[in-house]
């Protein structure tokens, strides 16, 4: 499938080195996004900062790929979905989620959502909650295979507004049926579950061999 690229000659050590270069840049831009939302500095200072940002952007664009980052695989089997808006370490829009596989086959992630993800005042935008659940369920749906499963359907039930701040999400496979995996999960805060989801994830035609 276009966008899935095997990169020859790139070792796990090389991937770690690249991670150490690019992840801090995304962290800095993520902090910049938060500051641009909450700052109260004057117009002259905003103009000066904007000029510096435009200069930095031009320097980064001096060498860049055509199109999006895609998903890159190394010769050691490392997966690099670094432009992904949920987990991409090079994507400042991503929280990013760090997925952890559980001993029972499920997955979970603990993460923080700040001002950039606000919908209702003080709370996470519902679309962001859905994206987190889509990714968590999609991750667990593909955990029994080296091939991805794509979202067929996703049903989200919002039990209450999800507050900004420290959050937890988890997912598990409930059953499989041929090319389909059925998964469920939830997002929670310190007070309990805020949203639940169920989804059907399908092995795409190009990956069925």
Structural features, described:
InterPro entries: HotDog_dom_sf, THEM4/THEM5_acyl-CoA_thioest, Thioestr_dom. Residues 122-193 form the Thioesterase domain. It catalyses: hexadecanoyl-CoA + H2O = hexadecanoate + CoA + H(+); (5Z,8Z,11Z,14Z)-eicosatetraenoyl-CoA + H2O = (5Z,8Z,11Z,14Z)-eicosatetraenoate + CoA + H(+); octanoyl-CoA + H2O = octanoate + CoA + H(+); (9Z)-octadecenoyl-CoA + H2O = (9Z)-octadecenoate + CoA + H(+). Helix content is 29%, strand content 30%. It is α+β, with helices and mostly antiparallel strands. It has two domains: 4-62; 97-207, Hotdog Thioesterase (Thiol Ester Dehydrase, Chain A), CATH 3.10.129. A six-stranded antiparallel β-sheet has the order 4-5-7-8-9-6, covered by helices on one side. It starts with a strand and ends in a 7-residue tail after the last strand.
Elements, N to C (H/E): EHHEEEEHEEEE
The CATH architecture classification of the largest domain is Roll
Q: Tell me the span between the first and last alpha carbons.
A: 12 Å
User: Total helix count?
Assistant: 3
Q: If you average the pLDDT, what whole number results?
A: 93
In which range does the helix fraction lie?
A: 25-40%
Are there runs of 5+ residues with pLDDT below 50, and where?
A: none
Largest sheet: 6 strands, antiparallel
* Tally of distinct domains: 2
How many DSSP-defined strands? 9
The radius of gyration over CA amounts to: 19 Å
Please identify the top-level CATH class of the largest domain.
Alpha Beta
Structural class: alpha+beta
- Broad shape: flat
Please, what is the oligomeric state?
single chain
């Amino acid at each position: 499938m276009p966008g899935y690229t095997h990169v020859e000659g790139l070792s796990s050590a090389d991937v770690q080195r690249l991670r150490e270069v690019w992840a801090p840049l995304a962290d800095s831009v993520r902090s910049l996004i938060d500051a641009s939302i909450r700052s109260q500095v004057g117009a002259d200072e905003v103009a000066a900062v904007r000029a510096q940002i435009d200069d930095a952007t031009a320097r980064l664009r001096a060498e860049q790929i055509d199109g999006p980052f895609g998903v890159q695989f190394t010769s050691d089997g490392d997966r690099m979905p670094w432009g992904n808006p949920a987990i991409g370490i090079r994507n400042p829009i991503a929280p990013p989620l760090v997925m952890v596989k559980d001993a029972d086959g499920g997955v979970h992630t603990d993460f923080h959502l700040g001002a950039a993800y606000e919908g209702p005042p003080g709370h996470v935008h519902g679309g962001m909650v859905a994206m987190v659940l889509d990714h968590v369920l999609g991750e667990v749906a593909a955990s029994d295979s080296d091939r991805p499963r794509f979202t067929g359907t996703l049903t989200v039930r919002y039990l209450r507004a999800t507050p900004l701040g420290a959050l937890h999400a988890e997912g598990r496979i409930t059953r499989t049926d041929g090319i389909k995996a059925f998964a469920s999960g939830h997002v929670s805060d310190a007070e309990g579950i805020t949203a639940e989801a169920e989804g059907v994830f399908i092995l795409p035609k190009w990956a069925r061999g």
